[in-house]
Amino acid sequence: MINELTTLVEWDTQRLGARVYESDSDDQLIARALRSDRGAFAALMSRHSKAVYLFAWGVTRSASDAEDITQDVFVVAWAKLREIRIAGSSALPWLLVTCRNMIRNHVRRASYRGVVSLDEAIATEGVTTHADELRWVMQEIEKLGGVDQRICTLCLIEGYSYSEASAQLGLSQSAIAKRVERIRVSLRATVRGQA
């Protein structure tokens, strides 16, 4: 995917006159991109995509994850062109911070997917105790009240941030945080009582 994306960017940059952008600083490329100059953004991406990809791969150790994360970084960069901060003369620090945040989100989603995927469908001999434990935890979550159950589902299972959950539920972030803590304490107490 990243190779295809890089090839497309290189082709697009060549087609639109790459030499025009060679001497431009990242700041100038962003200014041009803000004026709908696709070639300028393609040049910015061509300039930094390898570094972003290598950073993502260095953390994830997965070529496909690194490709996806790199693509997402540049999608965010395009959407937030006005918010990109230039450090020195480069947009790379901003892109790497965005990449780091994308990696964190990716890891968080993957860890929650791992928890949720331990369902009855994949319970096999020798692993049934883990599936039984998960089933028990899910039953405890189902016993929660409506809002607490929804908060638990959003924040603890689906990986939403408190900010995202508060926007969806119409509660403050601090209310979400307090409820999540209360849910965790309750589940821990229940686990200790069952042991």
How is this fold's topology laid out?
Layout: H1 2-15, H2 18-22, H3 26-34, H4 38-60, H5 63-79, H6 92-117, H7 128-142, H8 146-157, H9 162-169, H10 173-194
Helix pairs in contact: 1-4, 3-4, 4-5, 4-6, 5-6, 8-10, 9-10
Describe this structure in words.
The chain is an all-alpha fold and 195 residues long. It folds into two domains: 2-108, RNA polymerase sigma factor, region 2, helix turn helix motif (Rna Polymerase Sigma Factor, Chain: A, Orthogonal Bundle), CATH 1.10.1740.10; 118-194, Arc Repressor Mutant, subunit A (Orthogonal Bundle), CATH 1.10.10.10. 77% of the residues lie in helices and 0% in strands. The protein is built from ten helices and no strands. α4 (38-60) runs antiparallel to α5 (63-79) and α8 (146-157) packs across α10 (173-194). It is elongated, with a radius of gyration of 22 Å.
Task: Please give a quick description of this structure.
The chain is mainly α. The protein folds into two domains: 2-108, Rna Polymerase Sigma Factor, Chain: A (Orthogonal Bundle); 118-194, Winged helix-like DNA-binding domain superfamily/Winged helix DNA-binding domain (Arc Repressor Mutant, subunit A), CATH 1.10.10.10.
